[in-house]
Amino acid sequence: MSDPVRIAIVGGGYGSKVVLPGYAELAEFEPVAVWSRRPQRARELAEEAGLEVGTSDFEELLSTPGLEAVHVATPVATHVGFATAAAERGLHVMCEKPLAESLAGASRIVSAIRSNGVVGAVNYGRRMQQARLRLLGRAREVLGRPRMASVSLVYTDHADAGSRPFTWVHEASLGGGRLQAYGVHDLDFLLELFPDVEAVAAATEVGVAQRPLGGEKMGRVTAEDAYAILLRFRGGGLGTVSLVATARHKRGDVIELYGQEGSVRLDAQARVWWARAGEELRCEGPFATSSSDAFAGVARNFWAAIREGAAPDPSLEEGLRVQAVFDAVRIADVERRWVRPEPILAST
């Protein structure tokens, strides 16, 4: 690749563990800088990865010579400040999901990107996994209008207090919780097929109330490790999105889609089943569920948008669409009622 995009990674946690290595493996990108709130951590990350800049000073990061783009991978509550500042400096922006902690914040990010004429995208990478791409394709072929759609995840990675140390993902005030980690991906998936959500209801729960802070100290968990969402689609049909991260036995992802014209299913072995009305179910797969491959697809789409003028995919509009439903889910959980998502206008 003769024209890689010089990119900086903002975030020393997920950004250093997943995002930075992901870009480093792609010929389309040249990682040149990393930001962490801890100066020593930033310097260590830069040295380990051979980057030009490792800093806790965001202005210094934005001033990196030849910098073209940033990937914002910080706690959700901080996305707006980082993303808008980068856009105002004329840098392209890839933002982790969800775009922000609220639709108002997400709209600020989108406005800054559009008004400064830079490329913006949001990392809804799970949609790009081979298994889910195949499922989407089959659903568009055979499903028709929705009758019932279900996404169910059963994991064991948070089953014990010591299984994960306390970080921002366990703190609700910073936008943590399994909804921001997985739920928004599954909402994004369903909205690809059924974008018109009339109303949502939801409930969340903290199953493991404390996590280790270090030594013998424990931190109180305020962000959910289980959730159940009910969606009502305009024109008919229901959807459910659920996760438990504290199960004792992992099952994996199961997605079932039942429509007026046919059925499609992704089983826990990553096989896709499908049929039209009157046909026997057929099976294909198993398909890959690699997160790194999915990230590579998102990143290459970002490169194509920057260098070739392609449409960003996943787009900011899709990010806003998910954000509106995500906000409604949060309100529904607190107020224990059906909530209508805010409409997203084409010009938003």
Q: Can you describe what's shown?
A:
The protein has 348 residues and is α/β, with parallel strands linked by helices. The protein has nine helices and 16 strands. The protein has helices at residues 14-24, 39-49, 58-62, 79-88, 103-115, 130-142, 178-193, 291-308, 316-335; strands at 5-10, 29-35, 53-55, 69-72, 92-95, 120-122, 146-154, 197-205, 210-214, 217-220, 226-233, 238-244, 252-259, 262-266, 272-276, 282-284. It is globular and about 60 Å long.
Biggest sheet, in brief?
8 strands, mixed
Mean pLDDT: 96
> Helix/strand-derived class?
alpha/beta
Range of helix content: 25-40%
Distance between the termini: 35 Å
Unreliable residue stretches: none
Rg, rounded, reads 20 Å
Summed up, the helix count is 9
What order do the helices and strands follow? Answer: EHEHEHEHEHEHEHEEEEEEEEEHH
What is the overall silhouette? Answer: globular
Spatial strand arrangement across the major sheet: 8-11-12-7-13-14-15-16
Using DSSP, what is the number of strands? 16
